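Batch manifest, entry 17 of 40.
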Amino acid sequence: MPGSSIRLHPDPPHLVIRITCAYPAFSTDRSVNPSTYPFGDDVVPDPQGEIMTHTASTSEGSHTTTREERKVLAGTLVGTTIEWYDFFIYAQAAAFVLAAQFFAPLGEDNAGLAQVIAWASLGISFLFRPLGAILAGHLGDKYGRKIVLVMTLVGMGAATMLIGLLPTYAAIGVWAPILLIFLRIMQGISAGGEWGGAALMSVEHAPRHKRGLFGAFPQIGVPLGVLLATGFMFALTSTLTPEQFESWGWRIPFLSSALLIVVGHLIRRSVDESPVFKEMQLRKKESSAPLGQLFKHNKREVSLAALIFVANNAAGYLVIAFFASYGAKTLGMERSETLIATLVGGVGWLVFTMFGGWISDSWGRVRTFQIGYAVIIVWAVPMWWLLDTASLPLFALAIVVLTIGLGLSYGPQSALYAEMFPARVRYSGVSIGYAFGSILGGAFAPLIAQLLLNETGLSWTIGAYIAALGVVSFVAVSMVSKKLQGSDLHVKEVREEYLSSHPAAADDMQAAPITGNKH
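Output type: structure tokens
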């Protein structure tokens, strides 16, 4: 049976702890010599003196469980990537064409105003994501999770596809921006996603000393979504004339979402009956709390989680959309050049996110975040000196250096958040903290950046804004206790308590396996 086992070697005396986890590459033997290091990475004392060992998985059947775990990991990663693709193609369309296509009259007297409103339409959907999460939870409890998954997937994809079919302002007047904003709101409501569940599953199934690495897997959906959206835009701008792209070419990425609906449905259907996926849904039920209760007892943790994410999300949306718009519209670079720089930045973001998760297991979660935010604070202003050269190599270099800070302050996020919240409210706390951080950070970062540029004409003021947010997030993460790293996540106890009060849940979920790290 996979999980943890302990045996005592008589000569010399030492403990050998076998960790068999969801992903075979990370299964390991840990040898601990009690005379020199009584409690290793995977064995820690609790306050009552009990020895607690990590249980990576207690599912039956090693080979089957490994396959299912990896399938769910891949499924949630691909699902998250598709969800972010839908979000990011809108961000990049807002960077290049939406101002002229839907908000043209606003730019007649003030050319920058139409672009400001286009950025505002990007941010508005973030305000509705918490509402979408609440609705998805309520409908899931009432009608079942399958229909909710289908609704969110189809809702996001349909809204994205319909944006690609919308007539412009020149065709239907004021109804064009009204319908655009309505569909953008529908995207926000549909974008509850599975990030919270995927993040918790990756961390709660991990050995104590590899939580950061395991938790980095759900995080890379963002840079993968950037690469997918930017790659598509680059292919179009490279093959179409500017007139063709602005006339009809920009619609193609939105219309392609119809295909992604089918792909996403097949992926989610393939993992829907997985024991691990069922466990993810059960974890959502047993560790979700009403918002009133969450803010009454855990408002400090929610506030810190939101503030920790603010700077990363704001700087991230500059990489996702603003830099490309700035390079093309302000610096006069070719649109394809700015997209190449964004692609290079996406690769850097992916690499440094994985590195950030991995190294946080050695450096510590808080320290890794602090280093990441120090990079962002120090680089936020000087990077504009490189960007303003309008040289593609220097433009790309400026973005890549920024992604060092982004990766170090994003890769460890799943593990840090999981360790911050008690098990009984973990899902709610992680999800709400993430959502509020997005609203305060990235939702209106391109809008604020554009306003600063319009008002001052000085690009470095945008860097000052990002640096200020970096200071806020640096202080917030510094307030998280470093002692939380490697702490018992108490999943097993909460599972048993939940099932004792909801016996039907065990049948509904077909006795999803218990994870946790305490025997």
